[in-house]
Amino acid sequence: MVHTLLLKVWQSTWTRKVLWRCRKATAIVNEESNRQRSDGRIRARGEKETGILKGHAPGVFVMAIPTGSRPQSKNVIARLADVEGKSLGPQLDLPHDVGPPELEVLLNSLLQNEDKLPYTFYIDDRELVGELGAHLLEHNVSVETILKIVYQPQAVFRIRPVTRCSATISGHSEAVLSVSFSPDSTQLASGSGDTTVRLWDISTQTPLHTCPGHTNWVLCISWSPDGALLVSGGMDGDLRLWNPKLGIAVGGPLKGHKKWITSIAWEPAHIQVPCRRFVSGSKDGDVRIWDTAVRKCMVTMTGHTLAVTCVKWCGEGLIISSSRDCSINVWEPSQGKLVRQLKGHGHWVNTLAISSEFVLRTGPFDHTKKKYKSADEMKEAALQRYETAKGSVPERMVSGSDDFTMFLWEPTASKQSKARMTGHQQLVNHVYFSPDGRWIASASFDKSVRLWDGYSGKFVATFRGHVGPVYQISWSADCRLLVSASKDSTLKVWDMRTRKLKEDLPGHADEVFAVDWSPDGEKVASGGKDRVLKLWMH
User: Fold this and answer.
1) Helix%, strand%, coil% for the chain, nearest 5
2) Which of 257, 354, 484, 538 could form a disulfide with 282 if both were Cys (CB 3.0 to 4.6 A apart)?
3) Which regions does the record annotate with the repeat WD (predicted)?
């Protein structure tokens, strides 16, 4: 018989548990004698030899737990599964004092990873950080059925929480309404009620360029995923293109919308580099696709009956728009045809988020800060990042509404929602998937931030601490931290492992409307009613 895991030899006196895998055979060793066999037999040794267990083929997994002559507690029958729910290997008979280090060694062996990778383990959406038995007891987890342990690769880098304001930068003469880091984290853009877009140098934390042109508030800004262009949308109904390196306009305004611009999204870099096309949504109810090379509106999509509140360009190529008409439309971009309409909300749909949004935003740029020599190289890198992030399931989308609810969808696959997510007591203002797609965070006027499972839509935790409506949220690139901005003039950093407040960041003199965490994880930028930009770092 070939065991995949777990041979328990209780008549032994090992000083600590051993998890061991050998390519030719597996053996449990007495750590004092450091003796082992590689002939496919396992010799149980303590003060005396109790027996030789034969019959193992090469590649056995063995775990031995020091519990004296008898087990002290009942073991747990468990199964490992990835975040998409696919089970790995056979059922496991786990001792109560097994923890993440032992599971990580086992998992790397089961997956046959040549390079040992770090993993995080979850039970009912709670991270396992200590011994299994203590976790089950603390969280009252039933073991009457097979315990499902979900594993997920950790980011190979770790982001430190921002703890202090490193710079307060004045320049805008009215409220800062939007902030956004460039995909490579070298620049920061801000849009303001003073009608200007400003660009800031992150390395020196100083103003770089002022970009005038709009005749009314700048409501939204968006970087192209290759970092070559910045587009801004204003209360004046115009869209303007900027060269962020030079801080100059690329031609005149792009006109077509009859009312103010509410949202902008670029075509993903893995579809086209250099990035040329973006989509805009407006209070006039239209969704428009623009080509920056010819500086024209190529397609106008007129299906909404009220204001468009948010637009997204999916990694699978489709465009999604939400509206005050309570609907969400899925569009095919080449002809502007309506693919399907998603219904369920009973009031305005305010916000959308895509599960692969982080890699769509950052294109080919990651924590390695690699420089690319060609457009083809950038496109290939963006494609690899997108495919890794997406996995084998369709892209997911979450919507948040004035009806206090959220819905989880697979918009490119079905018009039926995967889950209806309830719990907020006031309107949902902003939703955001974690960079790995594992979690959804939501910000609400009920003064709370909520955490949800990104695959099932199941409620996980509530973060309370703000004393005013929460306007915006942003994830750290390693998915371990979340920052929120509020009407109460503070930022708060939340720890995903402990599900508690990590840092309280006062400093703004008034409401904080906008926040963004740089893709490289080094800094957080915030802006609001006090007209200043603040940069935060560890």
Assistant:
1) 5, 40, 50
2) 257
3) 169-210, 211-243, 254-300, 301-341, 421-462, 463-504, 505-538
pLDDT of the residue at 218 = 98
| The predicted structure's pLDDT at residue 139 | 87
Per the listing, tokens 């086992």 go with 106
pTM of the model as a whole: 0.78
Please name which of 535, 516, 511 lies closest in space to residue 171, comparing C-alpha atoms.
535
> pLDDT digits over 205-222, tens only?
999 999 999 999 999 999
Domains of the chain: 18-153 (3.10.20.90), 164-234+256-277+317-537 (2.130.10.10)
Partners of residue 473 on adjacent β-strands? 484
Contacting residues for 249 by C-beta, under 8 A, at least 6 apart: 211, 213, 240, 241, 242, 243
The residue with greater pLDDT, 7 or 287, is 287
Residues in the chain: 538
Residue listed under structure tokens 């004035």: 402
Mean predicted lDDT score pLDDT of the chain:
87
Cα–Cα distance, 224 to 320 (Å, whole number): 18
In 3-state terms, what secondary structure has residue 104? helix
Q: What is the DSSP letter of 254?
A: B
Q: Which residues are paired to 474 by β-bridges? A: 483
Reported as a pLDDT band with limits 50, 70 and 90, residue 73 is low
Tokens of 89: 């290997």
Contact 210, 247 (CB under 8 A): yes
Beta strands in 283-438 (DSSP E): 287-291, 296-301, 308-313, 319-323, 328-332, 337-342, 349-354, 397-401, 406-409, 419-421, 428-433
Residues 6+ apart with CB under 8 A from 368: none
CA–CA separation, 338 vs 319, rounded Å?
Answer: 10
What are the Cα distances from residue 316, in Å, to 320, 332, 354, 411?
Answer: 11, 10, 11, 10
Q: In 3-state terms, what secondary structure has residue 305?
A: coil
374-415, pLDDT tens digit by residue?
A: 999 999 999 999 998 888 889 999 999 999 999 999 998 999
Reference 124, options 96, 105, 143, 98; nearest CA is 143
| 406: β partners | 400, 421
